[in-house]
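Long-time lurker, first post. I've been practising inverse folding by hand and with some scripts of my own, and I keep getting stuck on stretches where the structure tokens seem ambiguous. Below is the full token string for one chain I'm working on. Before anyone asks, I'm not after the true native sequence, just a reasonable design that respects the backbone. If someone could post their per-position residues I'd love to compare against what I wrote down in my notebook.
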């Protein structure tokens, strides 16, 4: 399912340079195959805006090459943006009003940075819940990532997430606990998923709300769950879209925050992520950073290039398989008019015809 570069969004060219198959308009218009239109509500901060596009685009574009994917990035009000980011969004993103007019077959909702004690206090809460309400009536299936999962569970089921007391981040082993569901068909029964969060909705609370947990981790909690109908909403607590370097970039930002005085203590290392060689390099940099902060010395450059070659990605193939199953499910049941969520004869309360 190749991506179609239907706009001049820079991420398309970046992905093409990485070897991703991207259809140009002169090829796409001559292909007599169906399109799927997938929205990406990108709520990530400016520094991660384009990277988040590419992460989700890669997963969509790597799926079975039988349809053309038109991915429509958009964002919402209530998120702090720099003038540069505002210009980028104005140039390359679509307004939500246009998204609503044109329709979508599927919707991906990213995470976001938070600034308030509870999610309903966030300035983006009302615009986000407006998207949720529209998608419930008009989109075949919505896939939520991390913060978006917590927000929709609270909005729909009045279940608040719990603060863990510390940051849970790293790469954690997971296990499929319902092998019959189509979303996890033909994927590894054990696989890794990156996590990065301070909060969690616990498995017991998810199940108490009538949601079905498909993938769980003893060390990181429930990762993949679906709405009671089995497909209309897909919830991720982890970040299967992450690149191999994503946690390293995040760790680098935390180190710089510590050096600048934003954090009192040097950040904990992400679990199960850095191998022994990388850990040795970073332990030395940790001691240098602590000394530099205390003495007012200039901080040396973060040893990014020395670390990159020691990073492994142990979750990408499984993430691609789950996305392939999700998009394949949408393809089988969505209406050819993307403004209508289901083809005739589909039961919205059990769109995949599952035996619950």
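-- Answer (accepted) --
I ran through it position by position. Result:
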């Amino acid at each position: 399912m190749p991506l179609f570069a239907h706009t001049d969004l820079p991420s398309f060219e970046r992905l093409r340079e990485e070897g991703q198959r991207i259809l140009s308009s002169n090829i796409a218009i001559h292909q007599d195959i169906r399109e799927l239109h997938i929205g990406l509500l990108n709520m990530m901060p400016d520094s991660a805006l384009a990277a988040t596009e590419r992460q989700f685009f890669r997963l969509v574009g790597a799926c079975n090459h039988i349809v053309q994917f038109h991915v429509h990035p958009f964002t919402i009000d209530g998120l702090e943006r720099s003038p540069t980011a505002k210009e980028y969004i104005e140039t390359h993103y679509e307004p939500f009003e246009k998204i609503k007019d044109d329709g979508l077959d599927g919707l991906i909702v990213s995470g976001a940075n938070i600034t308030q004690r509870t999610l309903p206090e966030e300035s983006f809460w009302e615009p986000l819940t407006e998207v949720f309400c529209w998608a419930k009536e008009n989109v075949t299936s919505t896939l939520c990532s991390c913060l978006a999962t917590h927000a929709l569970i609270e909005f729909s089921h009045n279940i608040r997430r719990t603060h863990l007391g510390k940051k849970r981040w790293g790469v954690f082993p997971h296990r499929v606990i319902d092998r019959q569901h189509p979303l996890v068909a033909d994927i590894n029964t054990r696989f890794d998923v990156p996590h990065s969060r301070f909060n969690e909705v616990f498995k017991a609370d998810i199940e108490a709300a009538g949601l079905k947990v498909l993938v769980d981790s003893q060390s990181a909690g429930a990762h993949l769950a679906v709405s009671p109908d089995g497909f209309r909403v897909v919830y991720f607590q982890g970040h299967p879209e992450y690149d191999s370097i994503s946690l390293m970039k995040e760790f680098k930002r935390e180190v710089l925050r510590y050096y600048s005085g934003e954090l009192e203590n040097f950040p904990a290392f992400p679990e199960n992520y850095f191998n022994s060689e990388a850990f040795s390099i970073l332990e030395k940099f940790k001691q240098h950073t602590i000394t530099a902060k205390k003495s007012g010395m200039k901080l040396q450059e973060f040893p990014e290039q020395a670390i990159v070659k020691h990073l492994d990605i142990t979750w990408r193939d499984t993430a691609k398989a789950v996305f392939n199953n999700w998009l394949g499910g949408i393809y089988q049941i969505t209406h050819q008019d993307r403004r209508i969520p289901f083809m005739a004869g589909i039961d919205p309360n059990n769109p995949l015809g599952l035996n619950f």
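A couple of notes from the structure itself: The CA atoms of residues 174 and 217 lie 4 Å apart. The domain at 3-242+313-333 is CATH 3.40.50.880 (Rossmann fold). Happy to go over any region you disagree with.
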